[in-house]
Specification:
Blueprint: H1 4-19, H2 21-32, H3 38-45
Helix pairs in contact: 2-3
């Protein structure tokens, strides 16, 4: 059985990933857009 702290840590990770999902999707779209300059696309990956 997992420690309670490990379970809580995993729940925090899930919550953080859900809250950042839109931002990551936007950055991923910029990085994959071939019409943008390479500098902008690279900046979206950083």
């Amino acid at each position: 059985m997992a420690k309670k702290s490990a379970i809580e840590k995993n729940n925090r990770r899930i919550k953080m990933a859900a809250s950042q999902r839109n931002k990551r999707a936007e950055l991923r779209a910029v990085a994959r857009d071939k019409t943008l300059p390479a500098e902008e696309r690279f900046a979206a990956t950083m």
